[in-house]
UniProtKB/TrEMBL annotation:
Domain GST C-terminal: 82-202
SUPFAM superfamilies according to UniProt: GST C-terminal domain-like (SSF47616), Thioredoxin-like (SSF52833)
Coiled coil: none
Stated name of the protein: Glutathione S-transferase family protein
PANTHER family: GLUTATHIONE S-TRANSFERASE GSTA (PTHR44051:SF8), GLUTATHIONE S-TRANSFERASE-RELATED (PTHR44051)
Gene3D superfamilies: 1.20.1050.10, Glutaredoxin
Family of this protein: Belongs to the GST superfamily.
Domain named GST N-terminal: residues: 1-79
InterPro entries given in the database record: Glutathione-S-Trfase_C-like, Glutathione-S-Trfase_C_sf, Glutathione_S-Trfase, Glutathione_S-Trfase_N, GST_C, Thioredoxin-like_sf
Length: 202
């Protein structure tokens, strides 16, 4: 059984969703932020002192999107595509991490995460502009129900999960109707609903 370390309100949400999509049994080890992630016990699991982390037998992984790629590979297609589509799934996963997440985080911290007195409206606007620029790219690629075609894959899980905060916190998707419909489709999936319920209850 997979052990997924981290509260469902953390990036562990992504891994819980992937495990649900894969139909793989898992246990949530609810490590909170702060002192728990700096404990000697947890640092043996993730020396970075961050969540999530995963244990799968003798294999220990950190980085949520890498964990998700591992989970998908355990069950194969369609969640983990093959051939050229596997390379495309890697492309979109890395794009989510390097292009989308920094801008989405900049917007989120200054739009709703930090206390109102600590938010910087200029940083929020810059983050929003950065997200919108990436959504322009994605809008042009979403010509079918999911990123790689008719089947939901780990590329959808990874990219959509990076955009979950924007989707759930009233980011302006105006002009990106395909992206908004795709996100609605992804987060309405039964596996996503389970992960969302766990996140909301945490």
């Amino acid at each position: 059984m997979l052990k997924l370390h981290g509260t469902p309100k953390s990036r562990n949400f992504r891994c819980i969703w992937a495990a649900e999509e894969a139909g793989i049994p898992y246990e949530i080890v609810p490590i909170g932020l702060g002192a728990p992630v700096r404990s000697d016990t947890f640092l043996k699991v993730n020396p970075n002192g961050k969540v999530p982390a995963m244990e799968d037998g003798d294999l220990v992984l950190f980085e949520s999107l890498a964990i998700n790629l591992h989970i998908a590979a355990k069950v194969g297609a369609p969640l983990c595509p093959v051939g050229d589509d596997y390379s495309r799934a890697l492309q979109w996963t890395l794009w989510a991490a390097t292009e989308v997440e920094p801008a989405a985080g900049q917007w989120a911290f200054n739009a709703y995460i930090r206390p109102a007195s600590e938010r910087d409206t200029g940083q929020a606007a810059a983050g929003a502009a950065g997200v919108a620029a990436r959504l322009d790219v994605l809008e042009g690629q979403l010509t079918r129900p999911y990123i790689l075609g008719d089947d939901f894959t780990i590329a959808d899980c990874n990219l959509a999960s990076v955009l979950y905060g924007a989707w759930g916190n009233k980011f302006d998707f105006g002009g990106h109707t395909r992206v908004k419909a795709w996100l609605d489709r992804c987060f309405g999936r039964p596996a996503a609903l389970v992960a969302r319920k766990l996140r909301d209850a945490a």
